[in-house]
Amino acid sequence: MTSIAFIGLGNMGGPMAANLVKAGHTVTGFDLSPASCDQAKNDGVSIAGSTLDAVRDAEIVVTMLPAGKHVLSVWADILPAVKEGALLIDCSTIDVESARKVHTMAREQERNLTSLDAPVSGGVGGAKGATLTFMAGGAKQAFDRAEPILSKMGKKVVHCGEAGAGQAAKICNNMILGISMIGVSEAFVLAEKLGLSHQALFDVASTSSGQCWSLTTYCPVPGPVPTSPANNDYKPGFAAALMLKDLKLAQEAALASGASTPLGAEAAQLYALFANAGHDGDDFSGIVNFLRGQKG
Ligand code: NAD
Question: The complex's ipTM?
Answer without folding.
Answer: 0.99
